[in-house]
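Dear support,

We are seeing what looks like truncated structure output for some complexes. This example has two components. We would appreciate it if you could run it in full and send us the complete token output so we can diff it against ours.
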Amino acid sequence: MISISNTVSTYGSNLLRRQTVSDLTNQLAKAEYEVTTGLLQNVFGELGARAAQSLTLRSQMASAEAFVDSNTLLANRMEVTATALGTMRDIAQEFLDVAIANRDAPGSTVESLQMLAQSTIGQLIATTNTTFQGSALFSGTTTNATSLQGWDEVNDASGLSPADVLAGIVGTGPTTEAEAEAMIAQLDAVFSSDASAGTSGYETTFYNGTDLLDESGAANDRLSARIDTGTEVEYGIQANDTAFTELMQGLAMIASTDPATIDDEDAYNTWMTKAVDLISSGISGLLETETALGGQQARVESLIEVQQSRIDLYNSQVLDLEGVDEYEAATRLTTLQTQLQASYQVTSLMNSLSFLNYM
Amino acid sequence: MSISNAFATSRSGLMATSTWAEVTSTNIANATTDGYASRSVTMTTSTLGDVAVTGVTRSVSTTLTAMVRREYAAMGTQEAISSGLEIYSTLLGGTDSDSSLTTKLGELQSNLVLLAADPSDSSRQRAVVTSAQSLAEELNTLSSTLESSLETTQDSLTSEVSEANSELEQLAALNAALKKESGDTERRASLLDQQDKILDSLSERMDITVTTESDGQITLRTSGGTELLRGDRAETLEYDKAAGTLSVNGTDITPGETGKRGFDEGRIAGLFTLQNTTLPEFQSQLDEVARALIEGFTALDDTLATGEPGLFTDAGAAYDASDLTGLAGRITVNSAVLPEEGGALWRLRDGIGADEAGTVAGEAGLINSYIDLLEGEMSFSAEAGLGDTATLTDYVVSLTTSQQTTLSSAESELESLSTSATTLETSRQNIQGVNLDDELIQLTAIQQAYAANSQVLTTLTEMIDSLLEAV
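Here is the complete output from our reference environment:
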């Protein structure tokens, strides 16, 4: 039926006002959340597919944090390694300073050299066996093995102690130049990392860590660390590296025979020149190793900084995505408050306005 | 024209006014009744001058009503989807949730990185195993939530369909009652009120087309054209839970299927979308993640014999391509690395199939290859709908986003539909609702008319009395 008066449904308008109030209350709750947290209330609703970016950023942030943790550990480990290397070099240098004067012919300190060499070897072995958090620093990947065998301790792998091996070759010391040369050749074989020396070889009796080469002659893996996504560095320094074997061989030659008792001048010269040169070359090898390690340390340190700033960057990007302008949200909150108040007023006014009051 | 005629006319005036008063009081009483359409009386004058009420009519707009119902149906679809996914979505977690899949996967990756730096550290090995377990458990939880969501959906469908059937029955009974009721009576109006109310409720369940006959009987069809109700005969909707189909009278009208003469909107349609499309898709995406983990970790470990599972297992066994569905619910960490189940943590470093702990404590080869696996690209089944190559993290990110977006887009769709439905509903209410002020004004008019007619009667009586006195 067509009605002349175009009326408004009392119930309908009441319903509409109720809905307006509940809508406003919902928006108010949302604005309140955004003002207090500074983040969007419904990330997936507001960002849609861009929420994926936020998730990815957060996961990259977590992975960067893990790298910072593990790199900090690595940096500490390298620091300990560097300190140990420095100590070793100092110990060896001290001995070299004394030995160099006796290189070509016996000098005034020749009497004390053997004893000095023995104590230097002991100190070197102790320093090399430094561990970091329970794992050996110079044993390669076999971090559970003590790097160097004690000088007089029998190694289970060969049934010999390093001192035994030396005594077997050197005996009472060289008496002629030819003898000295023959002994040196034998010692060279012992201190090399090939298998020719058998059980008395360096890697079997002196050193307990990972061999340089595996059975097929290929290089064994060294200690490596993952310092960033997809980036690995080999940082392991092993006590069977050339610098160490040279140093050990030179010291062992002097420690196993008293140079003062080598009467033959040529034999003395051959023997001592070889030993002192080996020590000197070992020291410069150690220095090179230290320098290389220093480079890696710097790399790890700067990487940690990069990763930390990357975390900050990710964080700010996440905030760009998920964050709300707090001033805008606060303004919205105030506006909504006013709106809600107005709507309460209107509701109460409309409800009290009825023809009933005038009948 | 005579005084006795005038008596009769006044009497008819009183009668008509009381009917009007009755209708007005009904209107006032039902002012807040949902679905009540305001009535008005139609009055005519007879040749003798009598006033008579010829009918009580309801004010309705059929076009607006049909539009509102279509909105309700669309709202029903989105409501079913959003409420069906709500629990799952909460468990799936937002961007800053500690328990989300991305967080769990990230933790596993981070712990592997830390372990690679010191492969023999048993506390780090434990951390890797724990994070692997919590990743597997998260997948289990999500998968079982999906399963229970599916069951809830099926239960809701069963009850929705049976309620729709009972509403169709009621409409059929109303059709029969309307056929018997002739003329614009108050009873007819209230039958039509009932009919409207049931139609409103039915159209939230399914999108229907209503054809009204002149006598008020209705014929119902699905929006696709399949007949549901004609006269007093209602068809029965049949829901086949196992096959996931809906049929009427042997005709398949499953919503969402192309080429079927069913319907696309309404709660039932929404629930069918959940049951047949959304939930299975979510499940297969989770299963893909579980498969990638099990297969990926197994392939890297060369200590395993053929058919043995790696770090992640399908309930203890290796991955079986023929049994992919529900894999996310079954994925577990291999008991070979769990000391509490007779395993050993060092197998993380030395391989799941290793009999004895290796002598090389710092061996990080296997752990590094695990990290490479998680950092590198993997292949996924394109059928799961998230592309075929991605890193696992990216895949999990797009899984989370796409699943959460499904919910939030249903929610925002619902919100915008509800805005337009409110507008339409308000217009509809303005036409068929009661305005109290208007009724009250009518009431004063009734009062006046009644008083006037009574006054006429009194005057007529006085006239006859004075005539009798004069005689």
